[in-house]
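Sugar kinase: structure tokens wanted.
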Amino acid sequence: MSILVVGSVALDSVQTPFGNAKEALGGSATYFSVAASFFTDVRVVAVVGEDFPEEHLAFLKSRSIDLEGLVRVPGRTFRWAGEYGFDLNEAKTLETQLNVFAAFQPEIPKAYKESELVFLANIDPDLQRQVLGQVSLPRLVAADTMNYWINGKPEALRETLKLVDILLINDAETRQLAGEPNLVLAAQKILSWGPTSLVIKRGEYGALMIRKGGWFAAPALPLDSVFDPTGAGDCFAGGFIGYLANTMNFEEQNIRKAIVMGSVMASFNVEAFSLDRLRRLTYPEIEARYKAFKRLTQFEDL
Ligand code: AMP
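Answer:
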């Protein structure tokens, strides 16, 4: 089943203790689409400027990503600059330039209106709602956001949350969004605003899913080669929603597997800057790492 995603398509400048990337391919919709494209068809709604390199579009097309909803307009592409210290779990935003996204009023292509799965990747919550409102009858709506929008557009974000089934955010964002330091209480508060499930991404500590029925925890794979965590959250979402779209089974047991698939995709992405690891990723590697996750978490009673 196809997934419709709206989110940023960006040029990122990133500094980590292990190196840097300048104006490299990035953006929440970009990372999400490429990760999800290993499991299903993806349709992108986004905007880029005249300066967006053709080779990046060619790469997305090479992953069979549908770019009919990705428009190019006069102006500059969205840019984000960030830096990480030795604690790679925390990104420090140095600069956000919305550029062509500031005035983006998307009209989604006709074929996209029947999409059954929608991912509202990290972007202006008004824009997330504007796109969702054009989809006839989505069966599953998942969303992401970040401190920039939690601080900058809190009311608009609360409106979006009313329409979302699964919210995926990191632990700091969970506390910030709820205005509550205790993660359990923060999660319960957010679940009272609309989403039926909350997936909290905790970087190298894995992910937690909270639903009315209970909690599920997945670890992150201990890796010896972490270079750039940028996009890990979006790749997690791409693996997670991509797997759900591929199986179209929204039962608890399958959602748990989807969380592990999200962790698998995030674990690959952090191994190189920008999307460089996903460019050379193969499906057999994904399967092998999924099995490694299974081994990591399996135990029996003594
Ligand atoms: P992640 O590391 O998964 O949280 O996402 C990183 C990506 O989000 C980068 O490639 C950025 O281009 C993009 N990004 C950063 N800030 C924003 C923002 N305010 N709105 C939309 N996308 C953003």
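The first strand starts at residue 3 and ends at 6. The pocket of adenosine monophosphate is lined by residues 8, 10, 12, 26-28, 80, 96, 122-123, 146, 148, 230-234 (CB under 6 Å).

Cheers.
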